[in-house]
Amino acid sequence: MNMTTTMMMMGRRSSRVVEVTAYKLKEASSWWEEVNKSEVWQDRIFHLLAALYALVAAVAIIQLVRIQLRVPEYGWTTQKVFHFLNFLVNGVRCLVFIFRRAIQRMHPEILQHILLDLPSLAFFTTYALLVLFWAEIYYQARAVSTDGLRPSFFTINAIIYAIQLAMWLVLWWKNIPVVIILSKMFFAGVSLFAALGFLLYGGRSAICYICFFI
After folding, report:
1. Which residue ranges run through the membrane (predicted)?
2. Over the range 161-194, which residues count as b (16 or more CB within 10 Å of their CB) and which as e?
3. pTM here?
């Protein structure tokens, strides 16, 4: 068998591999199109997500009750507020997924935006509160004043809620597609901001915790 014949055979094999791969990708794409257009599949996915959010909400409320029973003499500590907000966020998201069809038919349309966006705002507040908790631990461990942390937390949340409220009012006045896009970008930026704080103070607190035991 000469070199030319060998190369021809390898070329045919490669061509078959490409054809099989393309066929499988096309088959997967058609399956996804079928799922995406099927209301039955959509309802199943919505109900699965609702069940997962309900599970997280149940864990949060159980933790809140356990803490309250263990230390009833303390009021609403940061830890209790965190678990309560976690329960609230995931409970609302669970209901949104259960009643997704009904929400999509709500009028005026601004009610849809509020019901779908409000859990995201509460989610930001929940994890900003966790960042505040870690930041307080970190600065207290370094003997640094934490007096400015809580006012900063409330100020940042007030600004974010005010911006989102302004967008809702604009959408209530007129359904402008650009404002909807800006609202989604705003939520993406807010989530990124929360994630950066999460990594920064979560990482610092973890390092302090490790150094304490070393």
Report:
1. 45-69, 81-99, 120-141, 153-173, 185-203
2. eeebeebbebbeeeeeeebeeebeebbeebeeeb
3. 0.73
